[in-house]
């Protein structure tokens, strides 16, 4: 028993050895470990609080998924800020002694962490202004997918291939972003169609509208429409325009289904989809050729 007491006393002496001095406060190994433990618990608790707010408490309100995520994230940042201040005071660190340290950190942020700060500020802008929300279908920097998480530094986009892409928040502020669901759930799709010259365009229009009406993923309102776009090099170019709210996330699936149906309709009614055509003109003239002895001969 005496050995255990001596061992504990020795450990206590080691933990109470001052590491450095911060103002009037002596930072010991014990206070450093205590501080680290409290910070870890704070981050864990704030993360659980954010998930509880977004997935349970706020689901009873009229807020959509994006708004719930925004409120939960802002609440977590506020808890982290207040918690860190309380922890520093609990450990015995006077915040007024951190002025010099804060100045040095500010200089470091200006040089080495400018991208991190830029992404953080962009994340706050996204949470407040909400140009994108969780659940939106977006395109940015050649990436297309669904927004599944908006964080302080980055946003997670899930592509149709099941790949999660981490996009820095500054991308959504400094670059052009296509948000397919910003103004509502319905999106218009355009399906280009080319038919041979001489085709009955009124028949083609009727067939295309029948294809749209028979597809369950195409909305009746707004109504599908057919537009005669241009006289092409090899075909008469038309465009089938339809609206959908169920396959916004699966554009390729809807366009493929419509193309299959259009092909079947055209085959059944004898509408020709032409191959590329080119007119070849051979200019008349004389062609010189040489005989066996190297003498030039002229042929017509």
Overview of this protein structure:
The protein is an alpha+beta fold and 300 residues long. It has three domains: 15-112, no CATH class; 131-179, SH3 type barrels (Roll), CATH 2.30.30.60; 187-269, 2-Layer Sandwich (Alpha-Beta Plaits), CATH 3.30.70.100. Helices cover 45% and strands 22% of the residues. It has eight helices and twelve strands. It has helices at 2-15, 29-55, 65-91, 99-111, 114-129, 171-174, 201-214, 251-269, and strands spanning 18-22, 25-28, 137-140, 143-150, 154-158, 164-168, 178-179, 187-195, 225-231, 236-244, 287-290, 296-299. The chain has a five-stranded antiparallel β-sheet. A hairpin with a 2-residue loop joins β1 (18-22) and β2. α2 packs antiparallel against α3 (65-91) and α7 (201-214) packs across α8. The longest helix has 27 residues, at 29-55.
Distance between the termini: 122 Å
Main structural class: alpha+beta
How many domain units?
Answer: 3
Shape: elongated
Oligomer: single chain
Structure summary, number of beta strands: 12
Backbone CA Rg: 34 Å
Helix content, binned percent = 40-55%
Order of helices and strands: HEEHHHHEEEEHEEHEEHEE
Strand content: 15-25%
Largest sheet: 5 strands, antiparallel
pLDDT averaged residue by residue: 80
Main sheet strand line-up: 6-5-4-3-7
Low-confidence residue ranges: none
Total helical segments: 8
């Amino acid at each position: 028993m005496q050995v255990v007491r001596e061992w504990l006393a020795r450990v206590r002496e080691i933990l109470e050895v001052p590491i450095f001095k911060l103002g009037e406060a002596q930072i010991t190994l014990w206070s450093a470990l205590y501080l680290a433990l409290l910070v870890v618990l704070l981050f864990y608790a704030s993360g659980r609080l954010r998930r509880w707010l977004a997935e349970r408490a706020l689901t009873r309100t009229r807020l959509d998924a994006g708004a719930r995520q925004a409120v939960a994230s802002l609440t977590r940042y506020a808890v982290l800020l207040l918690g860190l201040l309380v922890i520093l005071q609990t450990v015995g660190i006077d915040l007024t002694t951190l002025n010099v340290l804060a100045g040095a950190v500010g200089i470091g942020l200006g040089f080495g962490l400018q991208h991190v700060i830029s992404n953080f500020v962009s994340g706050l802008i996204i949470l407040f202004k909400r140009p994108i929300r969780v659940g939106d279908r977006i395109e940015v920097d050649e990436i297309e997918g669904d927004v599944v998480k908006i964080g302080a530094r980055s946003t997670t986009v899930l592509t149709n291939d099941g790949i999660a892409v981490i996009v820095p928040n500054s991308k959504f502020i400094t670059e052009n972003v296509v948000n397919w669901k910003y103004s509502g759930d319905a999106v218009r799709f355009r399906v280009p169609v080319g038919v041979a010259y001489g085709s009955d365009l009124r028949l083609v229009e009727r067939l295309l509208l029948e294809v749209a009406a028979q597809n369950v993923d195409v909305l009746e309102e707004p109504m599908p429409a057919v537009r005669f776009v241009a006289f092409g090099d090899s075909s008469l170019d038309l465009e089938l325009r339809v609206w959908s709210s169920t396959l916004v996330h699966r554009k390729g699936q809807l366009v493929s289904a419509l193309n299959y149906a259009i092909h079947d309709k055209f085959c059944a009614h004898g509408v020709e989809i032409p191959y590329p055509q080119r007119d070849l003109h051979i200019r008349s003239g004389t062609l010189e050729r040489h005989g066996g002895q190297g003498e030039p001969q002229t042929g017509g």
